Amino acid sequence: MKAEWYNRKGIRILTHMLIWVIVLTLPYLLVNQHEREHHSSDKIERAFFYLNFYTNFLWIAPFYLNAYFLTPRLFYSKRYALYVAALILLFGIILEIHGFLFTQVFGLPYFSIMGASIFHLPAFLLMVAISTTFRVVLDKMKADTLAQMTQEESLKTELSFLRSQINPHFIFNILNNLVALERMKSEELGPTILKLSGLMQYMLYETDEENVLLTREVEYLQSYIDLQRQRFGEKVDIRVSLEVPGELHEIEPMLLIPFVENAFKHGVGLIDQPAIHINLHTKNKVLYFSVRNKYRDGSSEIKDKTSGIGLANVKRRLNLLYGDQQQLTITRDPDWFAVSLQINLH
What we know:
This protein is α+β, with helices and mostly antiparallel strands. The protein has two domains: 143 residues, no CATH class; 191 residues, 2-Layer Sandwich (Heat Shock Protein 90). The chain is built from ten helices and seven strands. A five-stranded mixed β-sheet has the order 2-4-5-7-6, with helices on one face. β6 and β7 form a beta hairpin. The chain is rod-shaped. The relative contact order is 0.06.
C-alpha cells in the first residue's frame, strides 16, 4: 500500500525538526528588547542566557531515547524499576553535561549539583511525560491502521468467498436451462449456448473487479431473464422493466442476480398462474430495484440443499459493502413474495 505523503519518512523528520526549532527558540524570541539589552550589558547574565539556551538542546536526545527505546523495551514490558533507574541515570548524564558547560565552557562560578537538579528536574519530568505520551499515541495510531488494513483484507476475503458460493449456484441453474431446451428439441439451443458463453465470460472475468458499470450488470440481468423466457415460454407471466441509466454508475458485480434467481426458483412450478415482475431504475443517484413473484404458501418448506444460498449471501454482501447506504425490504403475503432494494450510488 502506497504511503500517504504525510506518512513519508522525510516529511516526518522535517516535521520533528520544525517542532524542536519552535520549542527551543520560542522562549528567546519572546524575550523583550529591554531584557536583551540588559543581558547584553552584563557578562554573567549573558553567559547564563547562552548556557540555558544550549542546555535546552540536551532534551532532544533523551526525548527520542525514551520514546524509541526505554518506553517500548522497559515501560511496555512492565520493568518499571529498571525503567526508573534508566531515567535517573539519564538525568545524571544531563546534569554532568550541564555542569561541564557551566564551568568549562562559559566559566561560571559556584556550580551546585543540587541547585542544578532542582532547576532542571521539572523540565526533565515534563520531557519524559511528553515523550512517553508521544510513543503511546504513535503506537495506538499504528495499531489502528493495522487493524483497519486487517479488517479490509478480511472483508475482501469474505466477499470473495461469498462470490465463489454464488457462481456455482448460478451455473447449476443455467445448466438446468440447457437440459430443458435440449429435451424440448428447441431451435434456440444453439443461440442460447452462445448467449450463455457471454454470460460465463462476464461471470468469470469481469466480476473479479470490485465494481462494474451498472449498465453492464443490467445487460447481464436482461440476458439471464431472456434465457428464462426461452425456458418457460408463455407458462409464466414475466414482466420486466430495466431502465438503463445514462450516468456511469458502478455497482458490486453479481449483486442483483440472486433476487432474480430466487424468483424463478420459487415463483414457478405448482403455482396457479405464475408471475414474475422485475423493475429497475435510478433517480437522483439512487438505484431502485424490485422483484415480485407469486408463490404457493407452504412451498417454501420444500427446499433443496442450495436453496437460500443466494439471498443469504446477497444480504451479507449488502451489509459489508454499503452499510446504511442501502435498504433491503422482503415482504410476503398469501400470494406474492416481494423484494425491494434501494442503494445509494454516490
